């Protein structure tokens, strides 16, 4: 059986909707292939075409896509479990996959039916839009839309995207608080330039995450393909997505969801590091007498046990965040209980704690694995670099964010950003 064929095709009849468990099993079945291509993915900056085709064949690009457009429309818990399994095979690939596919949910939540009917109309139902809030793009209002120009770095997942979503400040416009108005504009891939500025030695870690820079040169974006980017500055009880799709999944709060999508690859990285550490301590002896398998050494056992419990706890938090997100969405849409910014901020904080714990677990294993694990090309070194790179992300500035979350709690701040 080739990599582009699902290893669980016998579980279901062709054309039927795979169960959530089948999707997770398909992601796990890719692990040997993902690990075999880690070096190549780091060098070129993203996972290879064979992995992309395997993800397509396994239906893993359709998890969050609405059924209206041929998607599976599964819950976030299923999605998080899939991301963790892919990231256990290769954290960079998991990050690239997650940060591309999760925008299927935000697109289905925040854009009009006209826009969604247009952008989701792709061959085989395949849609994927990278999105970064970084950069300095500007938008000039013209008849029928905006002309957008600028540079948007860190567009993770862009190598296999059909579109890029660009945040831009609208010139000469302000919101009700006097702040510059910002929009998110969905632009087809053929209308932007993707710079070859990721992978290799350009960055410390997550080298295969496809976090390239996207450049937009005076592109006309129709009004209907833009959304006001105030997604974290208000409470929710309905959205264009809930009205169009009839599913609370598409309500649209993003702080907790987005950071859950960042934490999930790090949990996968911790699982990958546990796999590698167990291989090391069951195949190598202690360096000093009394010589014994490292797996029988109490110090190595303690490091393994600590990292195991931290990883298990981090995964449990991520999955609980996914469950709580759906509970809040359902409460808002079906029972009229708003999904508030405070609730979203608390989910954001929980996701941060999960990411921190998973990253710290990798650190324990890296320090305990021995100096050979720090050599170039060693899997443990790669996993350590990956979590170190993630620790530089804005979402990983834990003390800074904790202060803002407390301010939200006391009503002194509107958004965690």
UniProtKB/TrEMBL annotation:
Keywords: Monooxygenase, Oxidoreductase. Coiled coil: none annotated. Residues 262-396 form the Acyl-CoA dehydrogenase C-terminal domain. GO terms for molecular function: 3-hydroxy-9,10-secoandrosta-1,3,5(10)-triene-9,17-dione monooxygenase activity. It holds the Pfam family Acyl-CoA_dh_N. The keyword Metal-binding does not apply. The keyword Oxidoreductase applies. Residues 35-117 form the Acyl-CoA dehydrogenase/oxidase N-terminal domain. It comes from the Bacteria. Its EC number is 1.14.14.12. InterPro entries: Acyl-CoA_DH_C (IPR013107), Acyl-CoA_Oxase/DH_mid-dom_sf (IPR046373), AcylCo_DH-like_C (IPR036250), AcylCoA_DH/ox_N (IPR013786), AcylCoA_DH/ox_N_sf (IPR037069), AcylCoA_DH/oxidase_NM_dom_sf (IPR009100). PANTHER family: ACYL-COA DEHYDROGENASE (PTHR43884), ISOVALERYL-COA DEHYDROGENASE, MITOCHONDRIAL-RELATED (PTHR43884:SF12). This is 3-hydroxy-9,10-secoandrosta-1,3,5(10)-triene-9, 17-dione monooxygenase.
């Amino acid at each position: 059986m080739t990599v582009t064929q699902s290893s669980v095709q016998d579980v279901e009849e062709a054309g039927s909707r795979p169960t959530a468990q089948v999707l997770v099993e398909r992601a796990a079945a890719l692990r040997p292939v993902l690990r075999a291509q880690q070096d190549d993915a780091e060098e070129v900056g993203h996972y290879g075409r064979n992995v992309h085709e395997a993800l397509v064949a396994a239906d893993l690009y359709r998890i969050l896509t609405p059924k209206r457009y041929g998607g599976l429309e599964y819950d976030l818990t299923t999605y998080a479990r899939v991301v963790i399994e892919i990231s256990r095979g290769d954290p960079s690939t998991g990050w690239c996959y997650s940060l591309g596919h999760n925008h299927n949910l935000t697109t289905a939540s925040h854009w009009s039916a006209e826009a969604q009917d247009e952008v989701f109309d792709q061959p085989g139902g395949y849609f994927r839009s990278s999105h970064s809030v970084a950069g300095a793009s500007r938008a000039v209002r013209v008849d029928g839309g905006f002309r957008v120009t600028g540079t948007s770095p860190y567009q993770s997942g862009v190598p296999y995207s059909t579109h890029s979503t660009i945040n831009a400040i609208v010139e000469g416009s302000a919101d009700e608080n006097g702040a510059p108005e910002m929009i998110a504009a969905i632009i087809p891939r053929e209308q932007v330039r993707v710079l070859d500025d990721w992978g290799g030695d350009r960055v410390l870690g997550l080298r295969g995450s496809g976090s390239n820079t996207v450049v937009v040169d005076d592109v006309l974006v129709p009004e209907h393909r833009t959304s006001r980017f105030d997604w974290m500055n208000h409470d929710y009880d309905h959205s264009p997505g809930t009205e169009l799709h009839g599913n609370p999944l598409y309500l649209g709060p993003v702080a907790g969801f987005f950071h859950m999508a960042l934490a999930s690859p790090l949990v996968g990285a911790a699982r990958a590091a546990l796999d590698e550490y167990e291989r090391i301590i069951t195949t190598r002896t202690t360096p000093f007498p009394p010589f014994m398998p490292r797996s029988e050494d109490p110090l190595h056992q303690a490091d393994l046990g600590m990292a195991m419990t931290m990883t298990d706890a981090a995964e449990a938090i991520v999955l609980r965040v996914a469950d709580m997100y759906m509970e809040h969405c359902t409460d808002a849409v079906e029972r009229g209980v708003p999904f508030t910014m405070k609730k979203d901020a608390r989910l954001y904080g929980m996701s941060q704690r999960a990411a921190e714990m998973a990253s710290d677990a990798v650190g324990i294993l890296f320090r305990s694995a021995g100096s050979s694990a720090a050599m170039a090309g060693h899997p443990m070194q790669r996993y350590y670099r990956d979590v170190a790179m993630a620790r530089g992300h804005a979402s990983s500035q834990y003390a800074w964010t904790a202060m803002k979350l407390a301010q939200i709690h006391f009503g002194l701040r509107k958004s965690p950003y």
